[in-house]
From TrEMBL:
Domain Sialate O-acetylesterase: 111-369
Gene3D superfamilies: SGNH hydrolase
Gene Ontology molecular function: any one: sialate O-acetylesterase activity
Signal peptide: none
Protein name: Sialate O-acetylesterase domain-containing protein
Example of a GO biological process term: carbohydrate metabolic process
Keywords attached to this entry: Hydrolase
InterPro entries per record: SASA, SGNH_hydro_sf, SIAE
Length: 482
């Protein structure tokens, strides 16, 4: 790690430590996640916590409750109350008084989502240098909406769990949206328009991070192949070291009332995609446990196709590692209850790991949430998933779930994904494809008795198989011997 980065991380960590160590004569202090302009999850028991002088009574007043809540801080000055929120409303002012009153103003009641992952989740609406977000300038211009609120947890890393971070909630304006996660804002905007309630998004994302950096030591206890640093002096890349981002960027917000999680990560794990499925299942299970919400909805974006270089971070990347990572994410979707995956087979770019089409990502994640979490109906929300493999003569037949109005194959697509079939001898031949209803029929002259299929199973390709409503099918492989 270079010296400047080390100093920045140390100073950020020191600032948080200073915030949460409360002297005996302290006034009420709230963590950054509770600030002016925040959104509290509606119709829920939401925790509110903070610090005061040790064993001091704090009077908490919220406008929708008839009586004050009195809570006594513990010997370390920590206190917490659980408040039931109304179905919507605001703006409200909340007060906290231990003799010196602290107020939080302009508080809304609505839907709150945590948005986490790596650079494609972190990518601001204004884009990265020479890597724009498609349509961003007009979107930024039209983004003024006081009922959408955003807060970003700044990049940080720590060996030990932290109690706070530096930041505050902001209203959706052209200035704030330009600097905010494009995926998170598109998602929030679709929810706000569809539900007609305030929406708050918490963005905790760090470019280049791998999945294990967002997991605690306990979460990783079954993954002996993953090492956990014991000292920051041995850390060269904090965003790719196990537990460091969990400690600094997730731990301070665990417990804040949220409806669910959006996750867009995976590119940094293509160097070793083979344990990703299990890691993801464990991450979701553990985050739900830490929030005390065992059925908390978790929706994620499958990584988009990309022409990975031969080496990433000094490690060899195979020609199909990207496809293997997508496969791991697809398999995880079958194992994780109350989840959904947004397939991005049609938004990838061969030479850009940060696809410009972020609206599609936010929209497809919103489809998942609006249908599964909020029970809206009348639209397709999940990409077709391969469910059954059979054969009729020399044709291999793949049957799909989530294709109520059938499948389509798009023509004239550059770098189009191909279908390959095999008789089981490990030699695959390009196949002709046709669709009827929710079934895909594959055949080729070289294979008389096909039993295996690959679709789009390479690092970079563009999907051509869709639902009739335009949701792309993930790359996949199936065979008749499993």
């Amino acid at each position: 790690m270079n010296l400047n980065k080390s100093i920045k991380i140390f100073m950020a960590t020191l600032a948080v430590i200073l915030i949460v160590h409360i002297p005996s004569n302290a006034k009420v202090v709230l963590p950054a996640i509770f600030s002016d302009r925040m959104v509290l999850q509606r119709d829920a028991e939401v925790p509110i916590w903070g610090w005061a002088a040790p064993e001091r009574t704090v009077r908490v007043s919220v406008p929708w409750l008839k009586e004050e809540i009195n809570i006594k801080s513990d010997p370390n000055g920590k206190w917490r109350v659980d408040v039931h929120t109304p179905t919507s409303g605001g703006p409200f002012t909340l007060s906290f008084d231990d003799g010196d009153k602290l107020e939080i103003k302009d508080v809304l009641i609505g839907e709150v989502w945590l948005c986490s992952g790596q650079s494609n989740m972190e990518m601001p609406m204004k884009g990265y240098t020479s890597q724009p977000v498609e349509g961003a300038n007009e979107e930024i211009l039209m983004s003024n909406n006081p009922s959408i609120r955003l807060i970003k947890v700044p990049r940080n890393a720590s060996l030990e769990p932290l109690g706070d971070f530096e930041g505050s909630w902001e209203k959706s304006t052209s200035k704030t949206v330009a600097e905010s996660s494009a995926v998170a804002w598109y998602f929030a905007n679709y929810l706000n328009k569809s539900l007609n309630v305030p929406v708050g998004v918490i963005v905790s994302a760090y470019g280049g991070s791998n999945i294990q950096s967002w997991m605690s030591k306990q979460m990783l206890s079954d993954f002996n192949e993953i090492s956990i640093p014991e000292s920051m002096t041995e850390v060269k890349t904090p965003n790719r070291e196990a537990t460091l981002l969990y400690n600094a960027m997730l731990r301070p917000i665990i417990g804040y009332g949220i409806k669910g999680v959006l996750w867009y990560q995976g590119e940094s794990n293509v160097v070793n995609p083979f344990n990703y499925e299990d890691l993801m299942v464990q991450l979701v299970k553990s985050w739900r446990k830490e929030w005390g919400q065992e059925k908390m909805d978790f929706y994620y974006a499958q990584i988009a196709p990309y022409g990975y270089k031969r080496y990433i971070y000094g490690k060899l990347v195979g020609e199909r590692n990207g496809a293997l990572l997508r496969e791991a994410q697809l398999k995880a979707s079958y194992r994780i209850p109350n989840s959904g995956m947004a397939v991005l087979m049609d938004v990838g770019e061969q030479d850009n790991i940060h696809p410009k089409k972020k609206r599609e990502v936010g929209l497809r994640l919103a489809y998942q949430a609006l249908a599964k979490t909020y029970n809206l109906q009348g639209f397709e929300h999940t990409s077709p998933m391969p469910s059954k493999l059979s054969r009729s003569g020399n044709e291999l037949i793949v049957e799909f779930e989530n294709a109520p109005n059938g499948l389509i194959i798009k023509k004239d697509v550059d770098n189009a994904a191909s279908f390959f079939i095999s008789s089981g001898d490990s030699i695959f031949y390009r196949a002709d494809a046709r669709v009827k209803s929710n079934k895909l029929f594959l055949s080729c002259d070289e294979v008389d008795e096909p039993i295996a299929v690959h679709y789009g199973f390479e690092n970079y390709t563009m999907g051509i198989l869709y639902s009739s409503s335009g949701l792309p099918v993930s790359s996949f492989r199936m065979n008749g011997w499993e």
